[in-house]
Write a structure and sequence with these properties.
Layout lengths: L1 H21 L4 H20 L1 E11 L5 E2 L5 E5 L2 E5 L18 E15 L2 E9 L4 E9 L3 E8 L5 E7 L3
Antiparallel strand pairs: 1-2, 1-3, 1-9, 3-4, 4-5, 5-6, 6-7, 7-8, 8-9
């Protein structure tokens, strides 16, 4: 009976050790990961980056994949927002106004630095029609999420990828 327990224990250790070996990354994969992390770090540090959006999540209604060249660009002290919008509005010009498609100066910018493999950036702007705050979370692998809050419109969220070029 003791021998059977030993065999079972030995088999369990062998299976667990094998799983650890299978989960190890190749040196090439590790080098590529480090290269991506460095590029993400450099782009965010320079305050010159673009998030290409591929998914939108309105406050009300269903989430949608988006096609096209939708993006949010931070370029020093300016913001270039080219994002689709679905949601309610309390006070906007006839026809909807600019929505989330405009280029303007950033009035307030904060960067939390890296915490748990993510970096949170907040950029506020006034585009002549509204005051908008873009809360951007960027992960070390380049994936990103954006939450846009507005004085006159419903909040909306996006997901996408940092442009690595």
């Amino acid at each position: 009976m003791k021998n059977l327990h030993g065999i079972i224990l030995l088999a369990a250790v062998a299976v667990l050790a094998g799983c650890g070996i299978l989960n190890q990354k190749s040196p090439e994969a590790i080098a590529e990961e480090q290269k991506t992390e460095k590029l993400v770090q450099d782009k965010l540090d320079s305050k010159q980056f673009t998030v290409n959006v591929n998914y939108m999540m309105p406050t009300k209604g269903g989430s949608k994949a988006v096609n096209g060249a939708y993006s949010l660009t931070i370029d020093g002290d300016s913001i270039d927002s080219y994002l689709p919008y679905i949601g309610g509005a309390t006070s906007v010009p006839y026809g909807g106004g600019k929505g989330l498609t405009f280029k303007d100066k950033i009035t307030q910018y904060t960067d939390s630095g890296w915490e748990k493999d993510q970096r949170k950036i907040s950029a506020t702007t006034e585009n002549g029609e509204d005051t908008l705050t873009y809360n951007i979370t960027v992960f070390k692998n380049g994936s990103a999420s954006i939450i846009v809050t507005s004085r006159n419109r419903d909040t909306i969220s996006y997901r996408g990828l940092l442009d690595m070029e």
